[in-house]
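Duplicate of #3305? Posting structure anyway:
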């Protein structure tokens, strides 16, 4: 069974409740229909029930009657959620009136469902920008204990099976946090190790990437990566991690042996942590296009509950896969 199939099977075995806030969006409804039919997760769709069911009929979708459909503007939970929002945003002086207005927005309502324990995870973004999906999550769901930044990992399925574990590698952060500090970069490494275990299901060997290998260059940007590697080791002493390493030293054994002969990671890395979002986002797109790797993600990590953001160009299949991944993340957290 391939990895995505086994992720779906794992989701079937322990059904999680996934909320889809974009109930007006066609690909989302088609994906929900497949997920319900294949019993991958229990689905809540946000939107006006009549509109959702009419659209389902127009699209000949047979399974959406089995979904829970909630209209955030008329839901009986509004008062309870608004009170919770006021409590959680006391320091920002959020008023109840403003909280009730925010709840009209399904992207806020969904995060309150998660915060209140009424859903296990969320998938959105087929029709909304990354910032609009993430901001409510940052404000109300927040990060895991010990983690202050959310980041985004990609599973990279390389054609050349000699890289990573039989061609599977994990890259991060490629999606969220533009300019991490050394501490934040360490957190990204620790969070990516968890994603690698729970979703890629391989044991992480982490390379902290730079333009220098073991002191070959000196610069404050190199110092940041060296410090981040030290901090990550103190955060999780069991991590197999090394840095600073150049990309070739991280993944090519002959180069690793030459440039970092004492490293247990050099030449064998299956997880690449990039020093900032520019390098991570550019790298994953180049590897995807030039090396024809299959890239699955971004899988958001570090959040207290799994909330994943789709690309607006996503396919129905992308949404189904991300729902299954989100369900697996929710299970790993329980
Ligand atoms: N992790 C956790 N919390 C965060 C993070 C983070 N990475 N970034 C911001 N926050 C929190 C802040 O602390 C703040 O919390 P508070 O309101 O409780 O004080 C709240 O979120 C809002 O913070 P802002 O600084 O106002 O964040 P903003 O909403 O402007 O930006 C965003 C966040 C949208 C994620 C921004 O960092 C961004 O645009 N990142 C790049 C996303 C992107 O374009 N990626 C590339 C495309 S994706 C792809 O190619 C796959």
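Output from current build:
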């Amino acid at each position: 069974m391939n990895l995505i199939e086994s992720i779906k099977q794992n989701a079937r075995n322990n059904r999680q409740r996934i909320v889809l806030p974009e109930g007006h969006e066609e690909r989302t409804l088609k994906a929900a229909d497949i997920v319900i039919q294949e019993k991958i997760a229990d689905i809540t769709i946000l939107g006006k029930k009549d509109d959702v069911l009419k659209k389902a009929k127009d699209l000949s979708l047979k399974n959406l009657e089995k979904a829970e459909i909630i209209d955030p503007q008329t839901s009986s939970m509004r008062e309870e959620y608004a009170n919770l929002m006021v409590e959680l945003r006391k320091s920002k002086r959020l008023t109840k009136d403003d909280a009730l207005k925010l709840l009209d927005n399904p992207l806020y309502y969904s995060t309150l469902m998660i915060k209140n324990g009424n859903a296990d995870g969320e998938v959105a973004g087929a029709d909304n920008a990354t910032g609009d999906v993430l901001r409510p999550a940052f404000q109300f769901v927040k990060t895991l204990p010990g983690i202050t930044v959310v980041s985004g990992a990609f599973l990279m399925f390389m054609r050349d099976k000699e890289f990573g574990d039989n061609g599977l590698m994990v890259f991060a952060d490629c999606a969220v946090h533009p300019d991490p500090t050394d501490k934040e970069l360490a957190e990204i490494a620790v969070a990516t190790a968890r994603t690698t275990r729970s979703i890629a299901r391989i044991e992480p060997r982490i390379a902290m990437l730079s333009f220098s290998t073991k002191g070959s260059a000196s610069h404050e940007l190199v110092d940041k990566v060296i410090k981040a590697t030290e901090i990550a080791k103190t955060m999780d002493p069991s991590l197999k991690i090394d840095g600073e390493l150049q990309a070739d030293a991280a993944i090519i054994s002959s180069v690793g042996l030459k440039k970092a002969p004492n490293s247990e990671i050099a030449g064998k890395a299956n997880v690449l942590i990039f020093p900032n979002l520019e390098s991570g986002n550019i790298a994953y797109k180049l590897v995807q296009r030039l090396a024809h790797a299959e890239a699955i993600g971004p899988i958001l990590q570090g959040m207290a509950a799994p909330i994943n953001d789709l690309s607006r160009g996503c396919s129905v299949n992308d949404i189904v896969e991300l729902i299954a991944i989100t369900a697996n993340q929710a299970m790993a957290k329980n």
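Confirmed duplicate; merging threads. The longest strand covers residues 294-301. The radius of gyration is 21 Å.
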